[in-house]
């Protein structure tokens, strides 16, 4: 017998040692192009039409996503008794034969998303019933009706998580989830559900319910006390009424956003609600209307039809609102509604509130007092309203003592209450953009003119004054602040006059936006802003890059929408070029014949030009990409950029040579006559 080749022996030895000493802890190739990592076999996207029978027998997790498997046969999983996780997402699975899982009794997680299980759902149900340990089942995207779902899950009492999202379920009743006594999480989003009739009453352990993106018109008589998370966003809900009860509800998160709510929801009287999301509804409070009328004593009657019984419930809205228990609420999002004003003591019910979003409403005034102290509030968003008045009733107690982010952008404010920031001792971000406000320029003037006084607010680091119509800022409006981020964009006259206000920002300012401020190349001396790392100069009329930028060590620079024909040739070698990591350059009239700076920038390591594909240059009437200039354009540019002295010399040389030759010829032709004329004039006799 011949001795095996040395290399082959070594390879066989290594494979044997690796297999016996836990080589499964690392990646290894497997049949069919699958990958093995710690007993996890990944066969995703291998164009497999069946499960291979020659994979590792001790495999615990199998991933066959994005293949073409149509049938999971009785023998498909016989060789994998230790399997606990199987994923067959995005196949063409039509059938799971009844005996397919008989050898996989330990299977706990099964994903069958985006298949065709509606075709043979009854046989597939028989196969699923053989999984006593199954905890998580995903049937999303299988074109299943509610009756099919009922059959598929009827014998899965061990299930803790079930997803039947993206199917064709239309109506839910008490027969569908009857035996799912251990279910904790249920996902029904993106179906066509328009009616729910006691479908969840038997799910005593259910904690998370997702019915988003359906067609529910209302939720009346909500009584799932054990539920912690309820997502009914993106329906057509007009009313949300909780069952009248003094029982404690475990509900912590309620998402009613993107519906058609007309009123504030009637919530449990006793709950642990922490997040209430009401964004994008038609909600308003009718205690006071804009025309001065009041509907405070108006009652609403609900006609509730349950089978053959009819029940009329009368609700006095303001009483119900007062009975809501919001003491544990942390987040309230009421943005994108039709709120004109808040009821009396509405915010006083929320002592734990940390985030309040009232943006994109119809608020014309917003008042805060000691009763609405909101001591825990860290974020307040009142942007995109119609605010002309912000009232603060100052007393002995602090108002908004923990506020960090205050967004008042896009309103009609002209000033803020004097001394408002003496109570907000932790504020870091203030957005006043698109209001007609002015900063108080000199000490003592805050009481005599309408302005905003931020002097001495040491915690303030981010300030936006974009689009405020600022026309120069005298004095020192930023004195005593530590601003790191300042947005002055869309103020056409902000750089007019004395720029002494910059002196209080020299050491701290890191981000500055001067977009669309009519900036000229010499208007601002940037060299003193030594801490600046991000600068936006877009939307101006710069015809040359300000020379004071050369010494800065910026990380990001935006030069879009200017009038730059070129950048300095040495920009890549300057401190600015060496420090830049992000540079925006598009929408400038660059000259195609002076692109040396562009080539040098391309050589810089670490520099990214996000809009590089949009950068163009001009050559005559043509607009071209600087990275792909045609050869005729390059030749034309060479002539235009050649040394003009050499060009003149080349042009003048033929003329000079022509004149020289002409002179020589004339001289030779007239030589005899010229000599005789000279002799005659000088009186010299001819020799004989």
TrEMBL record:
Pfam families: LRR_1, LRR_8
GO cellular component, one term: extracellular space
Keyword Cell division: no
Keywords recorded for this protein, A-Z: Leucine-rich repeat, Membrane, Repeat, Signal, Transmembrane, Transmembrane helix
InterPro entries assigned: Leu-rich_rpt (IPR001611), Leu-rich_rpt_typical-subtyp (IPR003591), LRR_dom_sf (IPR032675), SLRP (IPR050333)
Listed transmembrane segments: 645-670
Listed Gene3D superfamilies: Ribonuclease Inhibitor
Signal peptide: 1-20
PANTHER family: AGAP008170-PA, INSULIN-LIKE GROWTH FACTOR-BINDING PROTEIN COMPLEX ACID LABILE SUBUNIT
Protein name: Negative regulator of reactive oxygen species
Lineage: Eukaryota, Metazoa, Chordata, Craniata, Vertebrata
């Amino acid at each position: 017998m011949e001795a095996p080749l040395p290399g082959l022996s070594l390879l066989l030895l290594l494979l044997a040692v690796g297999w016996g000493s836990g080589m499964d802890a690392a990646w290894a190739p497997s049949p069919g192009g699958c990958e093995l990592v710690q007993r996890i076999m990944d066969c995703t996207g291998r164009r497999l039409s069946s499960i291979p029978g020659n994979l590792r027998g001790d495999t615990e997790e199998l991933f066959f996503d994005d293949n073409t498997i149509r049938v999971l046969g009785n023998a498909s999983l016989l060789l994998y008794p230790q399997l606990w996780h199987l994923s067959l997402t995005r196949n063409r699975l039509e059938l799971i034969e009844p005996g397919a899982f008989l050898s996989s009794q330990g299977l706990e997680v099964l994903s069958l998303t985006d298949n065709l299980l509606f075709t043979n759902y009854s046989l597939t149900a028989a196969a699923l019933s053989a999984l006593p340990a199954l905890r998580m089942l995903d049937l999303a995207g299988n074109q299943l009706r509610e009756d099919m779902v009922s059959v598929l899950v009827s014998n899965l009492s061990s299930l803790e998580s079930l997803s039947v999202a993206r199917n064709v379920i239309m109506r839910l009743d008490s027969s569908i989830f009857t035996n799912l006594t251990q279910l904790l999480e249920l996902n029904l989003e993106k179906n066509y559900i328009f009616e729910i009739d006691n479908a969840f009453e038997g799910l005593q352990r259910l904690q998370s319910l997702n019915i988003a993106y359906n067609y529910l018109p209302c939720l009346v008589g909500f009584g799932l006390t054990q539920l912690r998370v309820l997502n009914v966003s993106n329906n057509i809900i007009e009313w949300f009424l909780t069952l009248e009860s003094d029982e404690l509800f475990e509900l912590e998160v309620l998402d009613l956003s993107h519906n058609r709510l007309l009123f504030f929801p009637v919530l449990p009287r006793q709950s642990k609600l922490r997040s209430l999301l009401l964004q994008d509804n038609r909600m308003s409070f009718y205690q006071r209307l804009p025309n001065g009328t009041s509907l405070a004593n108006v009652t609403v009657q609900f006609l509730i039809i349950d089978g053959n019984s009819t029940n009329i419930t009368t609700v006095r809205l303001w009483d119900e609102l007062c009975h809501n228990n919001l003491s544990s609420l942390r987040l309230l999002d009421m943005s994108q509604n039709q709120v004109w004003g808040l009821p009396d003591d509405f915010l006083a019910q929320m002592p734990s509130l940390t985030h309040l979003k009232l943006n994109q409403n119809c608020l014309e005034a917003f008042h805060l007092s000691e009763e609405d102290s909101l001591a825990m509030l860290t974020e307040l968003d009142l942007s995109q309203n119609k605010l002309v008045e912000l009232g603060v009733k100052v007393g002995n107690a602090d108002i908004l003592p923990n506020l960090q982010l205050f967004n008042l952008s896009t309103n009609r404010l002209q000033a803020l209450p004097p001394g408002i920031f003496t109570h907000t001792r932790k504020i870091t971000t203030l957005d006043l953009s698109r209001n007609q406000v002015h900063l108080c320029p000199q000490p003592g003037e805050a009481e005599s003119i309408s302005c905003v006084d931020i002097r001495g607010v040491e915690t303030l680091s981010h300030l936006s004054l974009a689009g405020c119509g600022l026309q120069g800022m005298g004095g020192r409006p930023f004195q005593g602040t530590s601003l790191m981020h300042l947005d002055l964009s869309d103020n056409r006259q902000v750089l007019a006059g004395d720029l002494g206000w910059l002196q209080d920002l020299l050491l701290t300012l890191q981000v500055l936006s001067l977009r669309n401020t009519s900036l000229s190349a010499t208007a601002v001396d940037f060299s003193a802003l030594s801490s600046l790392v991000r600068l936006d100069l877009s939307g101006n009329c710069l015809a040359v890059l300000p020379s004071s930028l050369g010494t800065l060590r910026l990380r990001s620079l935006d030069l879009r929408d200017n009038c730059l024909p070129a950048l300095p040739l040495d920009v890549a070698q300057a401190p600015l070029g060496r420090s830049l990591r992000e540079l925006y350059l598009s929408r400038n009239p660059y000259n195609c014949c002076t692109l040396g700076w562009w080539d040098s920038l391309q050589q810089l390591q670490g520099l990214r030009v996000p809009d590089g594909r949009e950068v163009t240059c001009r050559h005559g009437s043509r607009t071209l990409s600087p990275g792909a200039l045609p050869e005729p354009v390059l030749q034309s540019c060479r002539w235009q950029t050649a040394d003009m002295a050499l060009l003149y010399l080349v042009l003048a040389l033929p003329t000079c040579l022509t004149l020289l030759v002409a002179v020589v010829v004339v001289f030779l032709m007239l030589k005899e006559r010229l000599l005789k004329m000279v002799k005659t004039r000088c009186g010299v006799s001819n020799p004989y």
